[in-house]
Records
---
Amino acid sequence: MKINFSTTRVPSIDILRAITMILMIFVNDLWSLKNIPVWLEHVEHGVDGMGLADTIFPAFLFIVGLSLPFSIASRRAKGDSDSQLIIHVLIRSIALLVMGVFLVNGETLNPEAMGMRKNIWYSISCACFILIWNRYPVQWSKIISNGLRIAGILVLVVLAYFYKGGEGEAIEKFAPHWWGILGLIGWAYLVSGLITIFSRDNFYVILGGWLFFAILSMVSHAGLLPGFLHFIPDAIRGGTLTGLTLGGVLTSYIFQYFRNKNDTRNLYLSLGGFALVLMLLSIITRPYWGLAKLGATPAWLFVCSAITIITLLIIYFIVEIKGHESWFSFIRPAGTDTLMCYLIPYFAYATTRVLGIHLPEFILVGIVGLIKSMFFALLCVMITGGLQRLGLKLKI
């Protein structure tokens, strides 16, 4: 069964991505608060359960998959061949891996040995990301835009060369200690993107790919993977993260099939049924490996996929059935320039640190603190929108 995809943006997916990005900034800012509900935060390693924060990253991975078929269809409509699409996926994956590794090394940076504070490392790295991957105005000279990109690359190379991390005298060099959020997305995107390209919009190939990685997640947690496969990055070998992204691709196929037919009833029945099956799979697998983000367990894969599908259906009803897209116009920059929005908090934290800004204690406690963190997330969206109007928009 082959499905034809629209080459235009789907408002529901953009808005879902925007809401997820806002929630990601919100939960990432909870570290600054005290006396807030435990269910909002990440569950500790080894604990069977999850909080709101544990549902955001998988939702983002799922949305990457939701967008993939539309992105590939758009590029094919512009004349891209399969080889060009493969190169595009490889370049985007490498970009995400590079950004992920630089941000991860900031976590273990040794300020005394490096002679640089962590917030400065993050600010310089993020500024370089913008220089390299900004979508420069077409009227700009190629010499200027390419010169800025080269400058960004050179600064990153210098940062990596002089990097010193670790604690005390156990100094570490620049390395992918782990891939970071962006890097993990990069690995999952790489595999999902290649499968989507080679599927040639065949639903059953996508279904088979998702089943393979869902089963791989269970096989991996059962300890049945042969040792010689350990050279494969865990984001792929573990099955769970790629399973989340391919689950998004699969959902996108079902979504578009019924959307093409203008069959809203069966769209809801099919995706609602899929979400129900995923919930049941989560219940069935939880006794074996638990429900945990940090363990990337199969139950976490299934339940977070189900939650994201249900959220998509709610947004689709509000936006495309009831026609209330304008309700979400103020958060749209978070859905159309998500990477820039993700980077803004690094600059914000660095700025407050350099300027010595400290918020009053009462703003960091309880419900007032939660309002502060949500306001901060929305402020990041506003800044992203302002940067877009100034011609700063990341594209990888």
Note: The longest helix spans residues 82-107.
---
Amino acid sequence: DDFQLGNLSHRLGYQVVLSPYIVEHILAKVKLIDLFDRQIRWARVVKVERFWGYLGLIFTQGTVTSLVFLFLTHFSIYGQLVVLITWSIRLLMAYIIGEILFKDSLTKKHLIWIFLRDIFDFIVWTIGFFGNSIQWRGQRFKLIGNGRLVIVN
């Protein structure tokens, strides 16, 4: 796990730096359930390692939280304005990062999917709170303190 590698290196007195290089890769076709299991695994690992940081991720969930706000305000003009501003900024941020910063030519083509991905991420984040077991390479594990895994039979 990236966090554990960086954290343990830092504790030993080494400096942890991010590479200035962008690694390009092509994702293999995967089943939706496998993608979901992987995302849940990552979410639960983060939750176990840094619970308060995981809880703080609610502030990165603008797409969904703005919709919740819209419902709570009974579709008021203020609620609609919050959704419009939040979603516009979200699209702009995705465009700037994907198209301008990373020069990814597919960004514009897939930009509209960002909202479905945000909803998917919110569902994963929510489910990540419940339970401490994960599926990894066909085996079930229980997460315990410090990011350690115990095989579940």
Note: The beta strands are 133-136, 139-144, 148-151.
---
Amino acid sequence: MPADRLPAGSPQAETQVYVRRRGRMTRGQHRALDTLSPRFGLEPGDELIAPDQVFGRAAPLGLEIGFGMGQALLHWARACPNWNLLGAEVYQPGIGSLLLGLERERLEHVRVVERPAEDLLARNLPPDSLDEVRIFFPDPWPKKRHLKRRLIQPAFAQLLATRLKPDAVLWLATDWEPYAHWMLEVLDAVPCMRNDAGPGCFAGVSSGTEARPQTRFEARGIRLGHGVWDLRYVRNRASTPSR
């Protein structure tokens, strides 16, 4: 086993069995999964992803975790044509929707991995490989008995930190206030991550090409009277996360 992989017994490296979330799919989404997955999809198995080979060029590497229906990732791809972008998702209608958008807009610098983010980070991405990670509106699992299912947990945050390059950015957003404070507490506790807004503070939404587009989940939350909380972290150059 290469030295930069997690040991097989670690929680993040355990094989995760998951059921593909099919949901209701349109004919177009079905077609996209059948015909566009070979073009835009990655199935890395247990192998490390080599971005220069996958994309055919050297460029900054970004990852969106849980891209939903793909609006924010499409926006990122349009705004940053000089980046290589990965999207991780297990919801098949959302994958189909993103694939249709990539085909329609002729965006060739995005690849999709249909697997849980923990698995992708632990098995397929080496340390210090990502220039930016975005996690917008992850499932808040609001019931107390479900809190352990939340994506942002101390072990996951530590794993993610090891995959970020020095000075790389982690950008998160949620419309569930208790989860916002949960994420703030978890991420502020990672020694090698610096809260860009200051300890215990939330970030403002950026403007210009870095603006976060309003997703349908965000729009729904606003209609229901929810607030929105953004968090931005930077991997410290002087600190090395434990691996």
Note: Residues 54 and 218 are 32 Å apart (CA to CA).
---
Amino acid sequence: MSVRGPVLTLVGVAAVFEARAVTKRFGATRALESVSFDVKPGELVGLLGPNGAGKSTLVKIGCGLVHATSGEAVIGGHPAGQTAARKLIGYLAELFRYPGWLSADEVLALHQRLAASGGGPSERAELLDLVGLAEVATRRVSNMSKGMQQRLGLAQALIGEPKLLLLDEPTSALDPAGRRAVRAILESLRDRGLGVLLNSHLLSEIELVCDRVIILQHGRVIAQGAPDDLLVARGVEIETRSGLKTWPDARRDDVPGLVADLVSKGEDVFAVRILRPSLEDFYLEAVEGEVG
């Protein structure tokens, strides 16, 4: 797991996104039920849940495209949907498409006009450099790989210096190298102080890059927290000359005593592994527990 900035530095910092008891119903269908969480500046938050859990509805409410039945979403202190709130948002949809005949620079110029950004050529050049496309600024979209188009989409979402990014499956359909490139970009955005709400089904990616995760099921938050806090250790394995020894109930703090005891008994210790579930394991347990 990659090293993350200390969450404690965000205590007391005003949230760039807040969901305050957001509830949404479509007729008799409950899409969201009293969902509450926030995203701070410089924080990457992963939004997880099975299909139909309410993730897309929540993002649409944040964009101001859908109105909550009760509760509210707030962007930088402004109710979602207001002009002031929309100016603070950058959004990348999962199934975006740009005209194939436009160059990377032309795509950004088009979106500058749509967003009323006055950044001009310097903003476009900076964003293309940020996502590693500076050398292909004049290349047509039709001649770009999927990974390059995905990075161009991130550059588009950053037009106008938003404070919050809403990203829907930004690493979908990418190969491992492409996913690594996007992760690096997201980590650089964290360093710039942007808040990011990342919707993804790739739990391994979420575990690598996100500071916190929110798990939705049937429109409700069933778990949330930092991955390191959610993924509690589940035993210790120690490799010795006489074989592999396991302590299912041991924790990290027990390791020095276990090793010292083995050495005192004449064992040669070669490796120590603290067993812990993956985020996928935790997610499946949480979701299946709700289903059961």
Note: Residues 1-9 have pLDDT under 50 and may be disordered.
